[in-house]
Amino acid sequence: MAKSPEEEHPVKAFGWAARDPSGVLSPFKFSRRATGEKDVQFKVVYCGICHSDLHCVKNEWGFSMYPLLPGHEIVGIVTEVGSKVQKFKLGDKVGVGCMVGSCRSCDNCSKNLENYCPKMLLTYNSIYHDGTVTYGGYSDIMVADEHFVVRWPDNLPLDSGAPLLCAGITTYSPLKYFGLDKPGMHVGVVGLGGLGHVGVKFAKAFGVKVTVISTSPSKKKEAIEHLGADSFLVSRDPDQMQAAAGTLDGIIDTVSAPHPLLPLIGLLKTHGKIVLVGAPEKPLELPVMPLLMGRKIVAGSTIGGMKETQEMLDFAAKHNITADVEVIPVDYVNTAMERLVKADVRYRFVLDIANTMKAA
Ligand SMILES: [Zn+2]
Ligand SMILES: [Zn+2]
């Protein structure tokens, strides 16, 4: 018979987990595997709260396994390394993002695209190589194969940097891959939430002109004055959208709710690309004719490989890019989830694990 989460491994651990699709998180005793020869064990200091954590605790994508312990924007300090670990030593600052494993041999893996490996293992709610369920960063300690651990740049803050591990790489990678990182280009960012606000910062750091596209006119001041966007469009205002038709080289669409693509496609120049990085739970309607008329591309992208994730963090450190965060104590997590449903956060909650996670 399978052992309980508390008994299956030798290292005692503690976190907050959801027990059912109500999504309510509560204290949870479990265990972590002994540090293997290529593993890095670390004390978790901060963990960001991603919108996908919310989808998962409530089983909105339909594949949640309970107890479910979320968190994939995890930063901490190394407490133990395996005998064959090469990249890290005790006391190093490190991070773990959305994945903790892949096959390491397929075509994607060989090209540093572990994120597209068919056997990619998520940081939580996946079955690890040893047959046990993975648990995320809403917990006191973490262990991961060093390949899936990133070096934390010295001058990058741990708290406001944590969300880069998901929100950062999710926007950085498509800007690079789709060639939307060239100075002089004009890029749109749709949705000004956790993903969108760091997308704007990366795009500006690449030297491109940025237009934020949002349903709420109230975000204009914030987008332009605080985040440095060059212009702002209210997507529900047909006159504004018409006036901006054919002006964008590309769009990063971060919206994770169903929304119309037609007005966005209209903003693209010939050969323009719209890259979807949010994951609406229902299919979107795809108007084909406007794609044909201008050889436009609709694409998708998810996080990035480990090499690129490291590159993104180093770039962020160099350009002083962090997320705007509200650091909260662990026992505030359920309130934070309720506020996240209403998008009532600027722009990311980060759990102060080191100071507020108290083992029951
Ligand atoms: Zn995420
Ligand atoms: Zn693979």
Automatic annotation (TrEMBL):
Cofactors named for this entry: Zn(2+)
Gene3D superfamilies from the UniProt entry: Medium-chain alcohol dehydrogenases, catalytic domain, NAD(P)-binding Rossmann-like Domain
Domain Enoyl reductase (ER): 23-351
Signal peptide: none
GO molecular function, one term: oxidoreductase activity, acting on the CH-OH group of donors, NAD or NADP as acceptor
A Pfam family it matches: ADH_zinc_N
CDD domains: CAD1 (cd05283)
Keywords: Metal-binding, Oxidoreductase, Zinc
InterPro entries xref list: ADH-like_C, ADH-like_N, ADH_Zn_CS, CAD-like, ER, GroES-like_sf, NAD(P)-bd_dom_sf
Family affiliation: Belongs to the zinc-containing alcohol dehydrogenase family.
Protein name from the UniProt record: Enoyl reductase (ER) domain-containing protein
Species, as recorded: Nyssa sinensis
Upper classification of the organism: Eukaryota, Viridiplantae, Streptophyta, Embryophyta, Tracheophyta
